[in-house]
Specification:
alpha+beta; Immunoglobulin-like; Neutral Protease, domain 2; 5 domains; eight-stranded mixed beta sheet; five-stranded mixed beta sheet; 33 strands; globular; binds (3S)-3-amino-4-(1H-indol-3-yl)butanoic acid; binds zinc ion; hydrolase; aminopeptidase; Aminopeptidase N; metalloprotease; EC 3.4.11.2
Length: 868
């Protein structure tokens, strides 16, 4: 397969000003007529992307193009010889949506029609220069059988409809805004809508519709409410207003990702739309809020201002994730939101940055662009936007956004355009931040300090190093904003004065580390202080050199909630690593009484902020701990973590039980931050109590639960139990919810992540279960993904059965949906960090995948880079 390089970018030879599309929908043979008004833009032939299209007709300015002027490439593209500099190209193609199992282009799901065009799906619908720097105005006419497709939607505003005598009907949609082809969308079928209306700040009336399958109408309330809050927030915080008469959302159960921001017609995975308390957890509710906001915010950051090429993907994704994170932070507890985002970053992006697929936020090359919708482009990209925000401040950032939008509206631009707008609006030189876009690898930040009593001076030395990554052996320093403060021995915040400053500043201040090493001298420091660094996680780095004593102190005293949580986490991580080492030496790991003290302390103050307490109570995950080891030992990490949970549950049983009882839900189920926090804390207590042997408590909670959050929390604990305590609830859950795809996914996941010894065998049985369907991405992820990414103990089983299962599944899935297969193969790439025996087994499975004839280019790219 071919590699595409960023350095090879050339402007398109032809632009397309307007597109008229005419669809005659039929599952087996859909006809697509396209009329493209083209105009020359640069040198080169007229080349239109295409994939799997049966070309029936081609004309320019009405004249049929003879075959001699049409070149069909092996990749499915179409080259037109001797094209004039401007004119109208008309093509007619036939496609088969019902055969489209990749879910890219036009496909059917449950008898309805849906499209997914990002990144390169439009070429599977019609011949077109399918690249984001070709922006056009679209008029779309859809014709279909009226009974089969009473609803027919596309981008923009509706512009007429009518009936035909043959039982079909038609609708026309006009999108007044120029857009790239990846934002095209069509949805048609038997759908019902939940609707509201929204009046924008300038008085424009917008019809809001959420289109779902009949019967799902009662699950759209939270999505609609999240949409309305997102629209209002973007007006208030960024002054950005919606720009069409309608905003449609269609939910589909077969979808490769979370959702898609098509102009005026977002298409969503049902997982991010449908929720009611009996079927959706608090996590699901939060996911819906985030994804609805994210897709809505793309209307400006992505759609009105789009990317010049796919290497600039983080221009829209990093910025839009930053915007959705800020939105969610404003809806509830900013500190808890930051903790959760950092947890997510460390669970997914840090390992990616340290593995074989490590790539910069702006990659240099790709084989399959679908493989670059990654935590690095999304989450690290958002962190880089946050770095700029932290450096220049909220007011300058807002001015920068205004400038960026004003200057780049209706254009396809680059990351430089964004940074230039921020730089001009703030007057701050941001060149030191470009390294964050162009270098892979998580920087390591080391601290060292000394106190000079006679001079009453405290000196902080910070060093940074960006580790080598594939293709980038040497790195240069980047700009790292370090938000920090100093505490005295009693935990009080000290005002700080740097050498050269006239006055001391109260509270948190920002140090800018721009070189490989820099020292900062603080004056008037009466006694050795305790530094609190990276407040709010001001940069996505790994901080080293903070002693266990200081961590313990900061976990209790710091004024910054993020550092309080972080210090507890780092303390526990270091402790667990020592315990793992002891276990590997055959010694008893012991128990640090500081942990009991920390749990008791957290529970004492839990009432003030239960969500924070729940975060503070949870031990570092097995993956996070294993990631800190030179050679991972998943079984030892699991044993140590389980042992700690049991011991904490035993020693703190009294306070855990008291908190559990005190938080029993009274009254109606609510999804506000405080109610969610109370449930999270209660279920955290339950987990410790069950670890200490109180299985009956989980059985009782499962039976009595009035909502999915509590029911699932109990069931996931019972899934590790023995005998009827496990089998009864699992069977009950299946019987209750077998008709509900999203809930049944949870049933598969819970079993896939069980630590029971028989899990590897159970996985194979579940794979053969009549309710398992490899073609549905949610279901495939719920079993295969949950096992490979969420069950390190069994995935890394010594006999290699976990690896074998994953490779078998990837090989079976690849011809059906290469994009999902490529995503799932990722965990096999962790072999370098495993012991030699397991590493060899992992490599063998990667080789087995690579040996498959006609492997998709996405899976080829992931597996071959993993082995390199
Ligand atoms: N921009 C959307 C990305 C997306 C996607 C990419 C490749 C294949 C299928 C896809 N579905 C959606 C989602 C987003 O970031 O908002
Ligand atoms: Zn996005």
């Amino acid at each position: 397969p071919q590699t595409t390089y960023r350095a090879d970018y050339r402007p398109p030879a032809f632009l397309i000003d307007t597109v008229e599309l005419d669809f005659r929908l039929d599952p087996a043979a859909t006809l697509v007529r396209a009329r493209l008004a083209f105009r020359r833009n640069g040198p080169g032939p007229m080349r239109l992307d295409g994939q799997g299209l049966a070309l029936l007709e081609a004309r320019i300015d009405g004249a049929v193009l003879p075959e001699a002027r049409l070149g069909l490439g092996a990749d499915g593209s179409l080259t037109v010889a001797d094209a004039p500099d401007s004119g109208m190209l008309e093509t007619l193609v036939r496609i088969a949506p019902e055969k489209n199992t990749e879910l890219s282009g036009l496909y059917t799901s449950g008898g309805n029609f849906y499209t997914q065009c990002e990144a390169e799906g439009f070429r599977r619908i019609t011949f077109f220069p399918d690249r984001p720097d070709v922006m056009s105005r679209y008029t779309v006419t859809i014709t279909a059988d009226r009974a089969r497709c009473p609803v027919m939607l596309s981008n923009g505003n509706p512009d007429g409809s009518g009936g035909n005598e043959d039982g079909t009907h038609w609708v026309r949609w006009i999108d007044p805004h120029p857009k790239p082809s990846y934002l095209f969308a069509l949805v048609a079928g038997d759908l019902v809508d939940v609707h509201e209306s929204f009046v924008t700040k300038s008085g424009r009336q917008v019809a809001l519709n959420i289109w779902v399958r009949r019967g799902d109408e009662d699950r759209c309330g939270h999505a609609m409410d999240s949409l309305i809050r997102s629209m209002r927030w973007d007006e208030e915080v960024f002054g950005l207003e919606y720009d069409l008469d309608v905003f449609n959302i269609a939910a589909v159960s077969d979808f490769n990702m979370g959702a898609m921001e098509n102009k005026g017609l977002n298409v969503f995975n049902t997982k991010y739309v449908l929720a009611k308390p009996e079927t959706a957890t608090d996590g699901d509710y939060q996911g819906i809020e985030t994804v609805i906001a994210h897709e809505y915010f793309h209307n400006w950051t992505g759609n009105r201002v789009t990317c010049r090429d796919w290497f600039q993907l983080s221009l829209k994704e990093g910025l839009t994730v930053f915007r959705d994170q800020e939105f969610s932070a404003d809806q509830g507890s900013r500190a808890v939101k930051r903790i959760r985002d950092v947890r997510g970053l460390r669970a997914a992006q840090f390992p990616e940055d340290a593995g074989p697929m490590a790539h910069p936020v702006r990659p240099d090359s790709y084989i399959e662009i679908d493989n670059f919708y990654t935590p690095t482009v999304y989450q690290k990209g958002a962190e880089v936007v946050r770095l700029i925000h932290t450096r220049i401040g909220a007011a300058a950032f807002r001015r920068g956004m205004d400038l960026y939008i004003a200057r780049c509206d209706n254009r396809a631009v680059t990351i430089e355009d964004f940074v230039a707008a921020m730089q001009e609006a703030s007057g701050v030189d941001l060149s030191g931040f470009m390294g964050w876009y162009d270098q892979a690898g998580t920087p390591e930040l080391t601290m060292e300090d000394r106190y000079e009593p006679e001079a009453r001076r405290w000196v902080l030395t910070l060093r940074q190093a960006v580790p080598p990554t594939p293709g980038q052996p040497d790195k240069h320093p980047v700009a790292i904003p370090v938000a920090m403060g100093l505490l005295d021995a009693g935990g009080a915040e000290l005002p700080t004065r740097l050498a050269g400053e006239n006055e001391a500043k109260p509270g948190t201040r920002l140090l800018m580390l721009e070189a490989a090493e820099q020292s900062f001298t603080f004056e008037d420091v009466a006694a050795p202080p305790v530094p609190s660094l990276l407040r709010g996680f001001s940069a996505p780095v790994k901080l080293k050199g903070v002693s266990q004593d200081r961590l313990r102190f900061l976990a209790v005293h710091d004024t910054d909630p993020f550092v309080r949580w972080e210090s507890g986490l780092q303390y526990a991580t270091a402790l667990m690593l020592q315990m793992v080492a002891a276990r590997q030496r055959g010694e008893a790991p012991g128990f640090d009484p500081a942990l009991e003290e920390a749990v008791r302390n957290t529970l004492r103050g839990a009432e003030a902020d239960p969500a924070f307490a729940a975060e503070a109570l949870s031990l570092p995950g097995e993956g996070f701990v294993a990631d800190q080891m030179e050679v991972a030992d998943p079984a030892a990490v699991h044993a140590v973590r389980e042992g700690l949970r049991r011991e904490i549950g035993r020693r703190c049983g009294d306070v855990l039980r008291a908190t559990y009882d005190a938080l029993a839900e009274a009254g109606e189920y609510r999804v506000d931050g405080r109610s969610i926090g109370r449930r999270a804390l209660r279920n955290a207590c339950l987990a410790y109590l069950v670890a200490a042997g109180e299985t009956g408590l989980a059985e009782a909670q499962y039976a009595a639960a009035g909502n999915m959050t509590d029911r699932l929390a109990a069931l996931s604990l019972l899934a590790d139990a023995e005998g009827p305590a496990r089998e009864g609830p699992l069977a009950d859950f299946h019987a209750r919810w077998r008709g509900d795809d999203l809930v049944l996914d949870k049933w598969f996941s819970i079993q896939a992540m069980s630590s029971r010894a028989d899990t590897p065998a159970a996985i194979r049985t579940l794979y053969a279960h009549p309710d398992f369907d490899l073609r549905n991405p949610n279901r495939a992820r719920s079993l295969i993904g949950a096992f490979a990414s969420g069950n390190p103990l069994h995935f890394h089983a010594e006999d290699g059965e976990g690896y074998r299962f994953l490779a078998d599944a990837v090989i079976a899935l690849d011809p059906i949906n290469g994009s999902i297969a490529a995503r799932l193969v990722g965990p096999l790439g962790q072999w370098r960090r495993q012991a030699p025996g397991r590493a060899a087994l992992m490599r063998r499975e990667l080789e087995r995948v690579l040996a498959v004839p006609k492997l998709s280019k996405g899976t080829f790219e992931k597996a071959s880079k993993a082995l390199a």
